[in-house]
Amino acid sequence: MQPKKILILDGHPAESSLSRVFAQTYGDAARANGHEVRLVHLSDLQFDHDFGQGNYHDFKPLEPALETVLQDFEWSDHLVLTTPMWWGGLPAKLKGLIDRMFIPGRTFDTRNTTKIGLPAPMLTGRTARVILTSDTPGWFMRLIYRQALIRQVRDQILGFVGFKPTRFTYFAGASYPKPGSVERWISRVAKIGAAAV
Question: What is the pLDDT of residues 162-173, one digit of tens each?
């Protein structure tokens, strides 16, 4: 297997979380198999996560932290995002990072369009893995919520800027896991990291 350049984004805003454990586990396993890894913790980043009154022609300049992470996105072959689902969506700081950092001219091109008229993605040729934790049972996520967050992240966020395919690993019951669950989850993440998928 050819070594990959892997960006791991721990998308939990807290310093201590399952998302952080999964990010570190994936990174350790990938490094052990010869891949180049950059690990970023959302909790370490200082930036204004409010897009505010800006628009695509006059947006806030990126803070150094956002510029560095965006350069990491551009550098990567493969993205790993670890995040909880909160209120059916992404944590506010993580969504703010996306709102601020995914800007035209760097991640998509509004001057050129795809065959169906969408702005052309600028981060093509990259793949992604999202490791998602939640308290929502998997069957409820599929049947009732119709995997809304998964579709949003896959199609409207990562797919919009060029990451394809995006694969998902979903762990339910994360707030009060059953005995042995966390250990099994960590083992699964380590296997995925070793394979760098």
Answer: 999 999 999 999
Q: Is the pTM of this model over 0.85?
A: yes
What sign does the CA torsion over 143, 157, 155, 28 have? Answer: negative
Cα→Cα distances 29→43, 56, 194, Å: 22, 39, 5
Nearest to 13, CA basis, from 68, 88, 84, 100? 84
ω into 165 cis (within 30 of 0): yes
Backbone angles phi, psi at 196, to 5 degrees: 55, 45
| CATH number of 172's domain | 3.40.50.360
Nearest to 63 by CA among 43, 47, 45: 47
Instruction: Write out the residue range of the structural domain in which residue 171 sits.
Output: 5-195
Quick check: 7 and 38 in contact, CB under 8 A? yes
Whole-number pLDDT of residue 54: 66
Count of domains observed in the chain:
1
| Amino acid, res. 153 | V
> How, if at all, do strands 119-121 and 78-84 pair?
unpaired
Find the DSSP H helices in 33-137. Answer: 64-75, 92-101
H/E stretch holding 141 reads helix 138-143
Q: What is the dihedral of CA 26, 30, 35, 41, to 10 degrees?
A: 20
